[in-house]
Design a protein that fits this description.
- The complex is a heterodimer of chains A (257) and B (239).
- Chain A contains 12 helices and no strands.
- Chain A has 257 residues and is mostly helical.
- Chain A has one domain: ABC transporter involved in vitamin B12 uptake, BtuC (Orthogonal Bundle), CATH 1.10.3470.
- The radius of gyration of chain A is 18 Å and the shape is globular.
- Chain B has 239 residues and is α/β, with parallel strands linked by helices.
- Chain B folds into 2 domains: 161 residues, Rossmann fold (3-Layer(aba) Sandwich); 74 residues, no CATH class.
- In chain B, strands 5-6-7-3-8-9 form a 6-stranded mixed beta sheet, with helices on both faces.
- The radius of gyration of chain B is 18 Å and the shape is globular.
- In chain B, 39% of the residues are buried.
- Classes of the chains: A mainly alpha (257), B alpha/beta (239).
- The interface between A and B is medium-sized, with 23 and 27 residues.
Chain lengths: 257, 239
């Protein structure tokens, strides 16, 4: 039985890690690292409400995250509103509400993740969604990059704001997929860390996305494996391993300059 | 709309932050024509381009001929140094083959780059590493790769060395005449306007004069556009 549990963890870590790595570069280049990091907190009241109404928490998570992505998109178009302050306050408020409404015995798991024990159907749904979202990131990479490099030129050449919304929604869905394993507090970080590492070593955009994708898979699998071996929670293990690799990448970069 | 008319503008008005920036502009542009837009700083030249491109809201009518492909060279363009996008990737933003560029794409990109006097090795550089002049030339090459019918150039030689400036204009002129492209050009250099533009549009919130430069750019008209002190804005003066 334990081997089976670990196998599930391995596959989720691999697929969700890869998906996180594939979308991270665009979130980072849009200077949304902090927003992206905090976005996952919004899932917490979703989990709480789902538990209260005896639904699978995943539905609460996806609803709240998609809502947060739409809100960020809407705020970005309005320069007269201090978007960063609103996002900061709202995301923290969600965290606070979530902590109040989630039952005590579920709170640690919701915040920091757990080794998943899912029904096979559900596991397959997560894995195939993660694979599909990774594919989307790659197919839309050019559009995402275009609107980052020059929103004006992008619009003139047919890459409108719809792609910015697509980016945020793909990002929100990837975060939703990883929350079971990594937790609401740390899942945002999983999308940012591989991209931050890859940025230190990549010489082109295509290298950047590919490195980040591979690193996402490797770090989350290795982190989950360490957690299983040492009986840690998977979320913190993955994030700490990622941060360690990031520090090494800075050293490499210094060395190579 | 006439067969050969590529752009018709009727009663175009733009207000930015509630302030009228352009009012009641009407003009049309023919296929293969070079139209220079001149006017002092703050006259609304760039705003006009942005309205023509649909980048800002406006009142009135802007009608491009159906299917006309538009190329745009913006006035200011910088890519952050830390963004790892290479020059080649910048060109591929407009190609559906971003991940695996086709040989024909590559040939076309290299051709336009060398036409602008740049070496193909620049394709491997990062956008953030380029000088202002290199970026400017690259932007023109970039706009030409998709074979546009119309080229909108917002001060295309800002930041290009004087020796190359003349090259850029004669090149643009060649593109216009050989490939029958329409060129809309914002310029401060009246010598360029006299030499290469069939028509000129003098702008200062509204249209002050329009027509062939030799006919409409009288001393009086220039004084009306730029003020009595003349047309020495931006350090350029007619040669």
């Amino acid at each position: 039985m334990p081997e089976f549990v670990h196998q599930q963890t391995f596959w989720i870590a691999l697929f969700v890690g890869i998906a996180s790595g594939s979308i991270g570069p665009f979130i980072l280049l849009r200077r949304m690292a902090l927003v992206g990091d905090a976005l996952s907190h919004v899932a917490l009241p979703g989990i709480g409400l789902a538990l209260i109404y005896h639904l699978d928490p995943f539905y609460g998570v996806i609803t709240f995250l998609a809502g947060a992505a739409l809100l960020v998109f809407w705020l970005e178009a309005r320069s007269e509103i201090p978007a960063d302050a609103i996002v900061g306050l709202l995301f923290t408020a969600n965290l606070a509400i979530g902590i109040l409404i989630i039952p005590n015995d579920e709170i640690i798991e919701s915040l920091f993740g757990a080794f998943p024990t899912l029904r096979t159907v559900f596991l397959l749904a997560i894995l195939s969604s993660a694979a599909a979202l990774t594919l989307c990131s790659f197919l839309l990479a050019r559009r995402f990059l275009f609107s980052i490099v020059s929103p004006d030129l992008a619009k003139v050449y047919g890459t409108g704001r719809g792609y910015e919304l697509a980016l945020l929604l793909i990002f929100a869905m990837i975060v939703a997929l990883g929350i079971k394993l990594v937790g609401t507090l740390l899942m945002g970080a999983l999308t940012i860390i591989p991209a931050s590492i890859a940025k230190n070593v990549a010489r082109s955009m295509r290298e950047y996305v590919i490195f980040s994708t591979l690193l996402g898979g490797a770090i989350s699998v290795a982190g989950a494996w360490i957690a299983a071996k040492l009986h840690f929670l998977p979320g913190p293990s993955i994030v700490l391993l990622g941060v360690a690799v990031f520090l090494v990448s800075i050293a490499i970069r210094r060395h190579s300059i | 709309m006439n067969e050969s008319t590529i752009l018709t503008v009727e009663n175009l008005s733009v207000a930015l932050d509630g302030l009228p920036t352009l009012s009641n502009l009407s003009f049309s542009v023919q296929q293969g024509e070079a139209l220079a837009v001149i006017g002092p700083n703050g006259a609304g030249k760039t705003v006009l381009f942005r309205a023509l491109l649909g980048l800002i809201p406006f009142d009135g009518v802007v009608r491009w001929r159906t299917g006309a492909r538009i190329g745009y060279v913006p006035q200011r363009f910088t890519v952050e140094r830390s963004t790892p996008v290479t020059v080649l990737e910048f060109f591929l933003l407009n190609s559906p083959h971003f991940w695996r560029p086709r040989e024909s794409d590559m040939r076309q990109i290299e051709e336009e780059i060398s036409r602008m006097g740049l070496d193909a090795r620049i394709l491997r550089k990062r956008m953030g590493e380029l000088s202002g002049g290199q970026t400017q030339r690259l932007l023109i090459a970039w706009a030409l790769v998709p074979q546009p019918d119309v080229l909108l150039l917002d001060e295309p030689t800002a930041g290009v060395d004087a020796s190359f400036e003349e090259n850029v204009y004669s090149l643009i002129h060649r593109i216009q005449t050989e490939r029958n492209k329409t060129v809309l050009l914002i310029s401060h250099d009246l010598s360029v306007v006299y030499k290469y533009a069939q028509n000129v549009l003098c702008l200062n919130q509204s249209i002050v004069c329009q027509g062939p430069p030799l006919n409409v750019l009288s001393k009086d008209a220039l004084a009306r556009i730029y003020g009595e002190s003349g047309y020495y804005a931006h350090g350029d003066h007619p040669r």
